[in-house]
Amino acid sequence: MARPTRALPASSTYDKVRWDFLQQTLRMKGFSATWCNWIRSFVHGGNVAVKVNGQNGPYFQTRKGLRQDDPLSPILFNIVADMLAIIINRAKDVGKVNGVIPHLVEDGLSILQYADDTVLFMDHDLEKARNMKVLLCIFEKLSGLKINFHKSEIVCFGQAKEFENIYSSFSDVGWDPCLLGLPMHYRKLKNSDWRHIEERFEKRLSGWKGKLLSVGGRLVLINSVLSSLPMFMLSFFAIPKGVLKKLEYLRSRFFWQNDQHKKKYHLIKWDQVRQPKQQGGLGIIDLEVQNKCLLSKWLFKLANEDGIWQRLLRNKYLKSKPFGSGSKTPGISHFGLVRFWEDTWCGSQPLKFIYPSLFKIVRNKSATVADVMSSVPLNVSFRRGLVGERLRAWHELVGVVMRVPMRGGRDVFKWSLNKTGVFTVNSMYKHLVSNGIKVSQEIWKTKIPLKIKIFMWYVKRGVLLTKDNLARRNWNGHQGCCFLTKERVFNTYFLTAKGTFWLRHWAKLQRNEDQ
Residues of the chain with pLDDT > 90: what percent? Predict the structure, then answer.
């Protein structure tokens, strides 16, 4: 299907809003006269001055616009911007414009808005595309919000690509548009689409110059800054293996090397460094696991919430499946999510394990709880009659299910790793990286600088570059020590000349005190 899509940014957003249009919008949305008067007193009567060469000019009164940094301004702006969606939907009702995928979204999808960013969707129809531009001009005249067509882009898909030259008269034709910093593609992202993340990594590293930071400072920066740079992208897309390998290389190089141009020994495998502190690592965030956790958040939202994108995915991919299957009655948002036999909703395990003899002969193994509870006692059909042990199991099952408290509404999933039942990325991350083996936390509880804690961690793991460890790395130097035959961690740091001096004098002091 041919579909041109337009991305529309508004220019100079707050200072262009017309006050009379704001008041009309508030009244149309049902706000009381008292509330409208309050808003009028807040936005009217502002005085501003222009600073030129360090000197403030004369003050003059504003005639339109919302005040910058006012906590009410974002809300009022969204109320005004919402009128564009209302205008487009009313035009769609009378057939002047059209949306896309009406078989998946009721009345078709025609507009998505976030603050001052807007995306319009249209089927290939030049006349209705012209009508859409007329609506944008009307909204501009009414609200004062000017559409910046120089920054707008039209992206054509399917048969509409043959008419790109014609659509270019409405706005510039784009090839790889971005919305909110994310690339908009109908295909899977390539490694090149992640190049800006890699460039930001390298830019940060060259700016910090790791040689100016201690190992503790590098650890903090890796977790607080470097690891957070790709999080926005990781929340929406699965990271390619090649990109993941490059980012891990950059983080590892920055951690182990004081200066990115000097090669240093990596004392411990990077996989062990990324382990949580509870499992003996340094707690550096695992980007691959974090990516899985961030993407899993959308599954929880898909199951428990009801919005445009949830309805679209359910109708396209999950309509005939238990998870997220929609009701057959149009306009009804209550749908069965929980599977009667296969989900854990009645007891500590699924019913198919508690009553395997019944599950073996049931006709609809994927039936939802809503389907089964639609009749009394239970809406369950078996391939053969129930006798003997199966009949007793059936009566027991009916009794167990009937004792479960039911209430009207939509089924929801509870997250078992969180006491509140709400999914959190942090709880899933801790679960995935945990191997069940906990080590002592005494090092990290000590009130000393972080770089000393990391040094103690090196000592505990026996990875410091003493001569015996260097020999394991094919170092050919002399392994002898002034005290022992081989240099090890203990004699390097505890049997030095200074250490021996203080041990001797400490013994003399102790003898003098005893005398």
Answer: 5
pTM of this prediction exceeds 0.85: no
Structure tokens at 215: 């190992």
Helices 215-224, 241-256: inter-axial angle, 10-degree rounding: 150
Report the phi/psi class of residue 435: left, alpha or beta, with left for phi > 0 and alpha for psi in -120 to 50: alpha
**Number of separate helices (H) and strands (E) present in the chain:** 22, 12
pLDDT in tens, 450-469: 887 877 777 777 777 666 66
Q: If DSSP codes are grouped into helix, strand and coil, which group holds residue 399?
A: helix
Beta strands per DSSP E along 168-324:
172-173, 178-179, 182-183
Residue 301 falls inside a structural domain: no
Report how many domains make up the chain.
3
CA pseudo-torsion sign 500, 505, 506, 510: positive
Residue 386 lies in a domain: no
Report the amino acid identity of residue 295: L
Q: How confident is the model over 472-485, as a mean pLDDT?
A: 61
Q: Span 54-64, mean pLDDT?
A: 83
Is the same domain home to 75 and 157?
yes
**Residue where a domain terminates, one of 166, 183, 200:** 183
CA distance 239 to 245: 10
The DSSP secondary-structure symbol of 330 reads T
Partners of 157 in the β-ladder: 3
Q: Based on the domain organization, do 198 and 89 belong to the same domain?
A: no
Exposure class string for 70-97: b at 16+ Cβ within 10 A, else e: eeebeebbebbbebbeebbeebbeeebb
pLDDT tens-digit series, residues 322-342: 554 433 333 323 346 678 888
Structural domain harbouring 202: 191-294
For residues 136 and 343, the answer to whether their CB atoms sit within 8 Å is no
**E strands in 164-213:** 172-173, 178-179, 182-183
Mean pLDDT throughout 200-205? Answer: 79
My answer on whether 167 and 86 are in the same domain is: yes
Is residue 248 in a domain? yes
Residue 163 lies in a domain: yes
